[in-house]
Amino acid sequence: MAVKNRGISPDLLIHPGETISDLLEERGITQKELAQRAGVSEAFLSDVIHGKKDISKGLAMGLEYAFGVPSSFWLNLQANYDAELLSLQEEETVEEEEKGVLASIHEIVDFLKKRSVVAEDWTWEQTVIGLRKYFQVSNLTGLFNVTWPS
Q1: For residue 76, what is the enclosing H or E element?
Q2: Position with higher pLDDT, 93 vs 10
Q3: Are residues 64 and 120 in the same domain?
Q4: Which of 88, 110, 136 is the last residue of a domain?
Q5: Alpha carbon distance 22, 18 (integer Å)
Q6: Which of 7, 16, 126, 128 could serve as 77's disulfide partner, Cβ 3.0–4.6 Å?
Q7: What angle do CA 63, 10, 118 make, to 5 degrees?
Q8: Do residues 27 and 66 touch, judged by C-beta distance below 8 A?
Q9: Burial (CB count within 10 angstroms: exposed 0-12, middle 13-18, buried 19+), residue 144
Q10: Distance CA 20, CA 30 (A)
Q11: What are phi and psi of 77, to 5 degrees?
């Protein structure tokens, strides 16, 4: 089976600050009041709500006190957002020299396509990412330096 590109559409990626904003509205609390309850500055809280800053450990603990929602929820929400964002930006990490590696291992790539490890309709960037995961290397140029088990 082909390696699936995980993640969600950029349109569906929601910064954790939006969850805070929703709770403020739901509970009828102002940003100023939440900042005071959570022990952070209004400016910092505003930046988080608008997606300009991330939820810190301190804010997560403050949100636990202010909303009664565990700090682990807030930290996990931030970590999940960061992971999805990283996944969306993964194609930007593909280097041009990896395209040359694809050309030099085209017979292997063709074999993996026949075995449905690599999808026929993938772009070259998607193919590079799929092969990175399959071969467990962070860059295809590293394939030639890896010691393979016998």
Answers
A1: helix 71-88
A2: 93
A3: no
A4: 88
A5: 6
A6: 16
A7: 125
A8: no
A9: exposed
A10: 11
A11: -60, -45
Q: Clarify whether residues 78 and 37 are in a common domain.
A: yes
Question: How far is the C-alpha of 130 from the C-alpha of 122, rounded, in Å?
Answer: 9
Q: How many domains does the chain have?
A: 2
Is 73 inside a domain boundary? yes
Q: Count Cα atoms within 13 angstroms, Cβ side, for 85.
A: 11
Q: What is the CB neighbour count within 10 angstroms for residue 118?
A: 20
Q: What are phi and psi of 46, to 5 degrees?
A: -60, -45
Tokens in use for 20?
Answer: 């805070």
DSSP 40: S
* Cα distance between the two ends of the chain: 25
**Stated length of the chain:** 150
Burial profile 37-48: b = 16 or more Cβ within 10 angstroms, e = fewer: ebebeeebbbeb
pLDDT tens for residues 39-82?
999 999 999 999 999 999 999 999 999 999 999 999 999 999 99
- pLDDT class of 143 with cuts at 50, 70, 90: confident
Domain that holds residue 121: 94-145
Residue 62 near residue 55, CB atoms below 8 Å: no
